[in-house]
Design brief:
Helix content is about 40%, strand content about 15%. The protein has 10 helices and 9 strands. The strands form 2 sheets. A 5-stranded parallel beta sheet has the order 8-7-5-6-9.
Length: about 300
């Protein structure tokens, strides 16, 4: 009897999920018919804008949009402050600040089947949120610039893209604001061409709990330095606030993890030794003994 009840519940859940997916797909059909999709620049054009014109970028992906919709995500609880801040940044139009959005509104020819299906389902549920806060006719930049290995159909182009990304910090004094376990560029050559590196560490989860403290610490940075942000959705908002204060702030997100996967020739998202990977089921927890990395840390706000 118990097994029968479990099977009935399983059937009901699957049916309910199918009904929900059908509802959102029908609703999305009308959004697609009634609203022109936003213009999103290519990855190369986005990087060139940052490098050649010293522009800042705040990036939006699925997690940021869910927070803008008032939803909680796995490593960041929602709040009124976060929801309003995300909406403020996404709908902003400030000189020198690029708003990066995921390049998911076209044919998806660059991405593999799994990635395209994921974004198709995401848009069915959240396209209305994207369109509500995007400015019609505004040119947006490519938030996916930092995700250039896993999910790509043609991974042979990844090496060239990473070389292009490295030009962002080439010869620059860099201050990295990152999660405690992110360790951007540690154990690889991603940042070898930077002039110098300093680090401000924030929480690996619930970073918005320390948002004001992190921002205050960041304000101590010399404005000639490039600020790289790898702090989940908080990085999106920090790029916005720091740019308004006169900094060049680049929300660089998952670039280090993608670079590690590229170097490993990984076939799927997987753990990276000594680094937090929220998208991996299990994370490596080996003790890191790296004096150079430790000497780069100028503040811990945990």
């Amino acid at each position: 009897m118990k097994q029968i009840i479990i099977k009935i519940i399983d059937i009901i859940v699957k049916l309910w999920l199918k009904i929900k997916d059908t509802f959102w797909s029908v609703k999305d059909f009308f959004y697609r018919k009634l609203r022109k999709p936003p213009e999103v620049a290519s990855v190369d054009d986005t990087i060139d804008e940052i490098v050649n014109n010293n522009r800042s970028i705040a990036r939006f992906g699925d997690g940021e949009i869910k927070l803008a919709a008032g939803r909680t995500i796995s490593f960041q609880k929602s709040s009124a402050f976060i929801t309003n801040k995300m909406r403020e940044v996404l709908s902003s139009d400030i000189d020198g600040l690029m708003i990066g959005i995921a390049d998911i509104f076209g044919d998806g020819e660059r991405y593999d089947e799994f990635t395209n299906n994921y974004w198709k389902k995401h848009l069915a549920r959240f396209r209305g949120v994207w369109y509500k806060y995007l400015i019609r006719g505004k040119k947006y930049y490519n938030a996916s610039m930092t995700r250039q290995y896993i999910g790509l159909k043609n991974k042979e182009e990844s090496g060239e893209i990473f070389d292009h990304i490295k030009k962002i910090w080439d010869g620059r004094d860099v201050v990295i604001i990152e999660g405690e376990m992110s360790r951007l560029g540690v154990g690889n050559d991603l940042l070898d061409n930077a002039k110098s590196i300093k680090r401000i560490l924030g929480p690996s989860k619930q970073a918005f709990d320390k948002y004001d403290e992190i921002l205050e610490e960041a304000k101590k940075t010399d404005k000639s330095s490039l600020i790289l942000l790898a702090l989940g959705p908080a990085a999106t908002c920090l790029a916005y606030d720091l740019h308004k204060l006169g900094y060049q702030a680049v929300d660089i997100g998952h670039v280090d993890v993608e670079y590690e996967w590229y170097r490993m020739k990984a076939k799927k998202k997987m753990p990276v030794k000594n680094k937090m990977v929220h998208e991996a089921v299990v994370n490596e927890k080996d003790e890191l003994n790296d004096s150079e990395y430790e000497n780069q840390i100028i503040a811990k706000i945990l």
